[in-house]
Amino acid sequence: MLPNHKDALTLGNADESANSFPELSLYAGKSVFLTGHTGFKGGWLTATLRYLGANVHGYALVPDTQPNLFEVADIQSFLSSHTLADLADSTVMLAAMRAAQPEIIFHLAAQPLVRRSYLEPAITWQTNVQGTVNLLECVRQCPSVRAVVIITTDKCYENQEWYWGYRENDRLGGHDPYSASKAACELVVNSYRASFFNASGVRIASARAGNVIGGGDWAADRLIPDAVRAIAAGQTLQIRNPTASRPWQHVLAPLHGYLLLGKALLCGQAEVGCAFNFGPPSQDNLTVANVFEQLKIHWPQLQLELANNNNQAHEAQLLYLDSSKALNELAWRPRWLLSQSIEHTAAWYQAAYSNRLDMQSYTLAQIEEYLA
């Protein structure tokens, strides 16, 4: 049984947080509109923005797993406003956006799972493509907005099974509905930038991140959540594709990149109004089996067996991002190696399942350690 923490941590003065991390001090006091705040990445970004002193206004559906980070870490207590609604409801979204009067928007809401996209392709396309169109139409009717960061994925590239990293100018594509919908989302962003936002002065960029790990993810068909469920149930972990390699990184790594990108947009740096990759160094581009072995260091009881691959949906085998553009233009790089990311992830779940710690405080402590 997981803890249900209702006693929110008393945050320090916003100015103190800003002074501790001057590279992100711009967010102190800023109004931020964040879609997908009830999800895994959205929850961590909400907590990080609030830690930096921002006023965060969330727009999302109810969490789609039990348990979930939003409830376990009491993310709602970080919010200045909290709207539970669908991206398809443009009227509600516009009202929430106008009420928040944000200067910057981070758009994370999506259908984010490859395997689910095979089961629900229409919902995947509607959410990821039309949902983004609806958001950008609302931005056009909200004069307070100066910058927008649209989160897509590393899977938006036409996968060639290359051994080198994809760059931002490589061809977009996608075999499965999820990947293809995110490639289409990138085209939507490019079209709105050229057609509307360049002339209006609103800066818009897209962010493509690699596979993220971290405490509080209980989504289906992901390695770490599957491992956590197997350990909690005393079962053997079944993995589908042990030789597949992915650009693994802690969730705070790309979120830090999104914040640096948003800062550059708010500061009027027109040259960063484009796409950016946020992925780990090449040595952290490991196979599923490699990650499993590192997990066992922290969870010796974890046991592995190969799942039945009959009728398995297509998944890419090789995927690696070239993030040199983010390094050179945003001075961004992951601050934790994968071994550290796995250690912090395991520690978060162990703390949560111990039922002894305030997981909101624990989450903020990991944010502070990462940013420091």
From TrEMBL:
Entry's Gene Ontology molecular function annotations: CDP-glucose 4,6-dehydratase activity
The EC number(s) this enzyme carries: 4.2.1.45
Protein name stated in the entry: CDP-glucose 4,6-dehydratase
Keyword Transmembrane helix: no
Top EC class, one word: lyase
Domain NAD(P)-binding: 34-344
One Pfam family in the UniProt entry: GDP_Man_Dehyd
Keyword terms of this UniProt record: Lyase
